[in-house]
């Protein structure tokens, strides 16, 4: 009888140490999460809604010569606003917190991006301001940042670039130059694992 009482007492202690059961998932305060979990390194499939109902877009920045996808808020879910949010996020660069976590941008500080045309799922971006003067690695990462960010939008599959209205060659991840439309697949090798 004494042995049964000990087993029952031990079972009650073990049950009391378990994780409580919940009917619904509970939100986690972002400030309570470890920093390594706050920065996603996987690709988003497009705009999503956060718990506040705010639309978000994906922008890519650089950590140790690899591209890392992050979220930025968008004012609405219209194609134009989503595209503008991506371009603005790229031009703004990483936040101070993200910089402290080792993120940088390969885009030149004076570079501006604007949409020239959108046809079907292909967009032409005009590059203005400072566009050169960096290493080939930085140029590949810069093009990859833009292409992976813009093609994360559901309405865009391809990106081409122009400068002063003239199509420009872009560096692929393997270092080859092309004037063909660029896709996310061309820069997948640059993603952080």
Task: Spell out the key features of this protein.
single chain, 193 residues, 4-stranded mixed beta sheet, 3-stranded antiparallel beta sheet, 5 helices, 9 strands, globular
Task: Explain briefly what this protein structure is.
With 193 residues, this protein is an alpha+beta fold. The protein contains 5 helices and 9 strands; from the N terminus they run H-H-E-E-E-H-H-E-E-H-E-E-E-E. The strands form 3 sheets. A 4-stranded mixed β-sheet has the order 4-5-6-7, covered by helices on one side.
- The helix count comes to 5
Q: What would the average pLDDT be, to the nearest integer?
A: 79
State the distance separating the first and last CA atoms.
Answer: 57 Å
For the biggest sheet, the summary is: 4 strands, mixed
**Shape descriptor:** globular
What is the H/E string? HHEEEHHEEHEEEE
Please count the beta strands (DSSP E, at least 2 residues each): 9
- Strand-residue fraction? 15-25%
* Strand arrangement in the largest pleated sheet: 4-5-6-7
Q: Helices and strands: which structural class?
A: alpha+beta
Output the radius of gyration.
23 Å
Topology:
Elements lengths: L1 H15 L18 H4 L9 E2 L5 E9 L2 E9 L4 H14 L3 H5 L11 E8 L2 E7 L7 H15 L7 E6 L2 E2 L2 E2 L5 E2 L15
Parallel strand pairs: 5-6
Antiparallel strand pairs: 1-2, 2-3, 4-5, 6-7, 8-9
Pfam family, one: Germane
Protein name: GerMN domain-containing protein
Keywords: Signal
């Amino acid at each position: 009888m004494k042995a049964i009482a000990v087993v029952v007492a031990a079972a009650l202690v073990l049950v009391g140490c378990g994780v409580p059961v919940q009917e619904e998932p509970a939100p986690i305060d972002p400030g309570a999460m470890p920093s390594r979990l706050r920065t996603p390194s996987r690709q988003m499939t497009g705009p999503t809604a956060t718990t506040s109902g705010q639309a978000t877009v994906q922008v890519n920045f650089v950590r140790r010569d690899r591209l890392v996808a992050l979220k930025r808020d968008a004012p609405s879910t219209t194609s134009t606003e989503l595209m503008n949010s991506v371009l603005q996020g790229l031009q703004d660069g990483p936040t101070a917190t993200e910089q402290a976590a080792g993120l940088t941008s390969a885009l030149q500080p004076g570079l501006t991006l604007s949409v020239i045309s959108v046809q079907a799922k292909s967009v032409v971006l005009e590059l203005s301001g400072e566009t050169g003067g960096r290493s080939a690695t930085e140029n590949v990462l810069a093009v990859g940042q833009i292409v992976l960010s813009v093609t994360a939008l559901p309405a865009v599959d391809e990106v081409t670039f122009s400068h002063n209205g003239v199509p420009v060659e872009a560096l692929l991840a393997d270092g080859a130059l092309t004037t063909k439309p660029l896709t996310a697949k061309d820069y997948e090798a640059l993603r952080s694992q």
